[in-house]
């Protein structure tokens, strides 16, 4: 644990809180991609399969349970809550997430640190997390009315990944033999995908205007 990883975890947690706050208090999921939420749920399930096998710390278990529980709660709200589901823009959220899942699974089967079920699952979760935000970004580009809470949710997700890159750099400089190429490359790709969003986020902040992404 170091300050960058803690900041990354807290930023990730804040993104979940912002999204749940939007859904629970406003009773709206407008601008939120169900496809991205389903991908994140799959990411967490595959990554945390070892939750009852390898004990690292109470903090580690609690954070894993929070992300698992929140992911399935968000999906439940969007799919089955009587009020929230009415605001879901199914016609705009049309990204075929199967075209992300299958390539990531194939990549994990061929490129992993060890050919075991848990290691392949871990690699798959990293590859999938790198691209899971794509349906959300596509939906934001299609939606002309982007509310502030949705913008902050996506911003915090991107900031979380940025903090983890700082964490990796710090650990590489302070820990002997610390090398995790799969995590590093996946994380960098994920951060690059946020580049366009962060550019227009900065422009909107600088001009004190509402965020609008190019169509």
Explain what this protein looks like in three dimensions.
It is built from nine helices and no strands. With about 220 residues, it is mainly alpha-helical. The protein has one domain (about 5-205). The chain starts with a helix and ends in a 9-residue tail after the last helix.
Q: Give the overall form.
A: globular
Radius of gyration, in Å, reads 17 Å
The helix/strand class is mainly alpha
**Overall number of structural domains:** 1
- Uncertain spans: none
Keywords: Endoplasmic reticulum, ER-Golgi transport, Membrane, Protein transport, Receptor, Transmembrane, Transmembrane helix, Transport
Transmembrane segments: 94-111, 117-139, 151-170, 182-202
Subcellular location: Endoplasmic reticulum membrane
Protein name: ER lumen protein-retaining receptor
Strand and helix map with partners:
Elements: H1 3-26, H2 34-47, H3 58-80, H4 98-110, H5 117-131, H6 134-142, H7 148-174, H8 181-193, H9 195-206
Helix pairs in contact: 1-3, 1-7, 2-3, 2-5, 4-5, 5-8, 7-8
Main location: endoplasmic reticulum
Membrane topology: Multi-pass membrane protein
InterPro entries: ER_ret_rcpt (IPR000133)
Using brief descriptors, characterize the structure shown:
ER-Golgi transport; globular; mainly alpha
Summarize the structure.
This protein has about 220 residues and is mainly α. The protein has nine helices and no strands.
């Amino acid at each position: 644990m170091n300050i960058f990883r803690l900041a990354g975890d807290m930023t990730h947690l804040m993104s979940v809180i912002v999204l749940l706050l939007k859904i629970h208090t406003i009773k709206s999921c407008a601008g939120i991609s169900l496809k991205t939420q389903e991908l994140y749920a799959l990411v967490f399930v595959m990554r945390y399969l070892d939750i009852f096998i390898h004990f690292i710390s109470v903090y580690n278990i609690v954070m894993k349970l929070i992300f698992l529980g929140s992911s399935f709660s968000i999906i439940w709200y969007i799919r089955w809550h009587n009020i929230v589901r009415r605001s879901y823009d199914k016609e705009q959220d049309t990204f075929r997430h199967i075209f992300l899942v299958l390539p990531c699974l194939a990549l994990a089967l061929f490129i992993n640190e060890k050919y075991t079920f848990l290691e392949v699952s871990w690699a798959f979760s990293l590859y999938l997390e790198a691209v899971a935000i794509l349906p959300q970004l596509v939906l934001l580009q299609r939606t002309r009315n982007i509310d502030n809470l949705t913008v902050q949710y996506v911003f915090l997700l991107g900031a979380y990944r940025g903090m983890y890159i700082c964490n990796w750099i710090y650990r590489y400089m302070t820990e002997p033999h610390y090398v995790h190429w799969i995590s590093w490359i996946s994380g960098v790709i994920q951060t690059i995908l946020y580049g366009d969003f962060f550019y227009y986020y900065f422009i909107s902040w600088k001009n004190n205007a509402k965020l609008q992404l190019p169509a």
